């Protein structure tokens, strides 16, 4: 497998982790899920992310799941693995394991105790030292990590740590950060790295307009992100926005804190991507009213897509 690099673009879907109704790891659904994402046009996959319930897996389960995904992908697209950990020893161990199995790179989010610019830079300096030659993605998700990473710190990391090849941009609002990073690379003030965006694609058209290379996030309809990025790359800006608008009500509904992953997995199960929409405990459950909302949104989405096709 080719290693992750600064030219990465397209849609790297953040994969869910399928479980049975009883909470066991569902490896057959893992195969179905991989096939589903690739059929919808994913150019890469990211596993063990924050929306992949990684913290609910044992170390053995994490290894088993990653191996199953990599085996099913069989080198067709790059696979990035989240290796964020409370210490560098487990980070190194997991990273070496997944890279040995064929992963293209790893992703690291900052721990929540970092506050100053120097602390953040120092942490990623140690990440780079820990990972060695392994390329890594810097996950900038302050809404969850509570760590505010400025554009200046990112540029400092990019300048001095060559194994940082991608930013997963999930700041909100953060459009100006993308603009700043792209302006720096255009003027020669900083190395150009890949920028893939998150937040369920909620701002994808605007982020593409600021210079993002695509998306690294999840949504029950990953083809939305695929089609929007393709339309934008082809210069068909209005079509990109029309497509995005058709999916937006469901994408917005899926972004509810605490319930979003349950909504996503319910819809993926409905679409046949996984056998069960169950989350491993603890996890929220949908009410009858929630399900009625989802069904209504899906029906309206179908009609709107027909109108813009």
Give an account of the 3D structure.
The structure is a single chain. The chain is α/β, with parallel strands linked by helices and 309 residues long. The chain has one domain (10-236): Alpha-Beta Barrel (TIM Barrel), CATH 3.20.20.70. Helices cover 49% and strands 11% of the residues. The chain has an 8-stranded parallel barrel, surrounded by 6 helices. Helix 8 (204-210) links the parallel strand 7 (194-197) and strand 8. Helix 3 (88-101) crosses helix 4, helix 4 (117-131) runs parallel beside helix 6 and helix 8 packs parallel to helix 9. The chain is globular, with a radius of gyration of 19 Å. The model has no long low-confidence stretch (mean pLDDT 96).
- Largest sheet entry: 8 strands, parallel, barrel
Average pLDDT, all residues: 96
What is the subunit arrangement here? single chain
Strand content is 5-15%
Distance between the termini: 36 Å
Q: Would you tell me the structural class of the helices and strands?
A: alpha/beta
- CATH fold description: TIM Barrel
Q: CATH class, anyone?
A: Alpha Beta
- Just name the CATH architecture: Alpha-Beta Barrel
Sheet with most strands: strand arrangement = 1-2-3-4-5-6-7-8
Helix content: 40-55%
Count of runs of 4 or more consecutive helical residues:
12
InterPro entries: Aldolase_TIM, DapA-like
Keywords: Lyase
GO molecular function, one term: 4-hydroxy-tetrahydrodipicolinate synthase activity
GO cellular component, one term: cytosol
């Amino acid at each position: 497998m080719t290693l992750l690099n600064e030219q990465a673009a397209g849609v790297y879907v953040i994969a869910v982790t399928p479980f049975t109704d009883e909470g066991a790891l569902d490896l057959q659904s893992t195969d179905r899920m991989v096939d589903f994402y690739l059929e919808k046009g994913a150019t890469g996959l990211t596993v063990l992310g924050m929306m992949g319930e990684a913290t609910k897996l044992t170390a053995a389960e994490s290894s088993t799941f990653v191996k199953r995904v990599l085996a099913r992908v069989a080198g067709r697209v790059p696979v990035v693995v989240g290796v964020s950990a409370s210490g560098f020893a487990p980070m190194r161990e997991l990273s070496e394991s997944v890279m040995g199995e064929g992963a293209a790179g790893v992703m690291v989010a900052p721990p929540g105790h970092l506050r100053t610019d120097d602390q953040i830079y120092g942490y990623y300096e140690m990440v780079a030292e820990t990972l060695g030659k392994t390329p890594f993605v810097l996950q900038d998700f302050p809404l969850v990590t509570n760590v505010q990473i400025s554009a200046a710190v990112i540029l400092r990391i990019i300048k001095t740590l060559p194994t940082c090849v991608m930013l997963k941009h999930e700041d909100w609002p953060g459009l100006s950060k993308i603009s700043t990073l792209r302006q720096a690379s255009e003027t020669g003030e900083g190395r150009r790295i890949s920028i893939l965006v998150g937040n369920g694609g909620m701002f994808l058209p605007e982020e593409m307009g600021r210079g993002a290379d695509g998306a690294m996030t999840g949504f029950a309809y990953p083809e939305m992100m695929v089609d929007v990025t393709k339309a934008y790359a082809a210069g068909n800006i209005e079509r990109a926005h029309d497509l995005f608008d058709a999916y937006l009500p469901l994408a917005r509904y899926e972004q509810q804190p605490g319930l979003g992953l349950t909504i996503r997995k319910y819809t993926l199960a409905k679409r046949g991507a996984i056998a069960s929409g169950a989350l491993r405990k603890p996890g929220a459950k949908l009410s009858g009213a929630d399900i009625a909302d989802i069904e209504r949104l899906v029906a309206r989405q179908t009609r709107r897509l027909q109108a813009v096709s």
